[in-house]
Design brief:
Number of helices: 1
Order of helices and strands: HEEEE
Number of strands: 4
Strand content: over 45%
Amino acid sequence: LHDAIAMCMKDPAFALSFETTSVEVARSGDMADELGTYTFTATDEKTKKPVTGKGHGITLWKKQADGSWKVRVDVPVSGPPEAPAAQKK
């Protein structure tokens, strides 16, 4: 995983953004789920051109004894690949 992150950081086309679409906190106040979307851009190894992918995901949070929140589960789900510009309508 460390190597993959290092490779992304060296890619001049690399970009990653997140947008939270909803957050729901359990009645107990110690668990929460966050739904959101993301966009990721990186250089395609074959074409050497930037490609963008989109997806959504869920992050589950747990409140710690000291009051801080920590991620328990983070699940990204990739969307379908985007069509090449020439094929878009």
